[in-house]
Amino acid sequence: MAHIDLRELTADDRDAAFAAVRDSASSWPRATIENREAFDAWVAEDRVAARAVVADGAIVGVAATLDVDDDREILLAVTPDAVEGVATEALRLLTVLEPERPLYACLAADDDPSHAVLAGLGFVEDSRDGDDIVYVLPPTLE
Known about the structure:
Number of helices: 4
Order of helices and strands: EHHEEEHEHEE
Distance between the termini: 31 Å
Number of strands: 7
Shape: globular
Helix content: 25-40%
Strand content: 35-45%
Largest sheet: 7 strands, mixed
Structural class: alpha+beta
Mean pLDDT: 89
Strand order of the largest sheet: 1-2-3-4-5-7-6
């Protein structure tokens, strides 16, 4: 498997990061990115903490946390040609970096691969919102 890392998303990363979001099969019910300008504006929002997903030195996606209705939510987009396991490892790293719990994720109901990744990381279904499913990673007992 490739070496996967998350790093702060820099201005130099944004072309590759936007391409990953545009080309990803994932949909983001909580964020609509129609073009590069919208992506740059979204990344610049105070409520968004975006990171580059890096596999063996190449940017292959974007992992982000953001505030949605007083809750902390995660988003991920990975290019379709990324090696297997990148999405799972990127989300695992993101949950380690984001200490706030509960932590939420919202997915399209038909995004089966993403549902499996979240379940594997301990997320459970919380609610349904139209055609989307909201997952939660609950607090753990110490």
